[in-house]
Design brief:
This protein has 140 residues and is α/β, with parallel strands linked by helices. The protein is built from four helices and six strands. Strands 1-2-3-5-6-4 form a six-stranded mixed sheet, with helices on both faces.
Length: 140
């Protein structure tokens, strides 16, 4: 029997989709944001030299608070990107993996937040459950 995909699996599929289009996508990178950004940027420049700033990654430390033990997304997961020009591609990949996306304007153009959307009860109020996930592109 094949198990259902969890949220982490679907995000990994979205990253594979991005990689198929030449965007250097790495999940769960170790180290601080500065260390990981330098490492991923250098790998992207070597692996995909024509797209040197087209990369996206998340930090391993961030996934500890974003996913539960079953791989369900239970909190915001920051995706760090090399350039804001790839935000539409990232949003499309997230959407094709079952995540809704919308943009908000802020000062940081190098981060997309992926997090849970609350479910709604019959009265229209938010409940504690999580139905899916959403992406908020920051700085676009």
């Amino acid at each position: 029997m094949i198990a259902a995909l969890n949220d982490r699996d679907r995000l990994l599929l979205a990253f594979a989709n991005l990689a198929s289009y030449g965007i250097f996508a790495r999940p769960a990178v170790r180290g601080s944001l500065v260390e990981a950004g330098g490492l991923v940027g250098a790998e992207a420049a070597t692996g995909v030299p024509f797209a040197r700033r087209d990369y996206v990654f998340w930090l391993r430390d961030d996934e500890r608070s974003a996913f539960d033990q079953t791989g369900a997304l239970v909190g915001p997961l920051p995706l760090h990107i090399g350039t804001g020009s790839i935000v539409p591609a990232i949003r499309a990949a997230l959407s094709s993996a079952g995540f809704a996306g919308w943009c908000a304007t802020a000062s940081d153009s190098h981060q997309i937040l992926v997090g849970p959307i609350p479910t709604f009860d019959a009265g229209g109020g938010a409940s504690a459950g999580v139905r899916s996930a959403h992406a908020v592109a920051v700085g676009t």
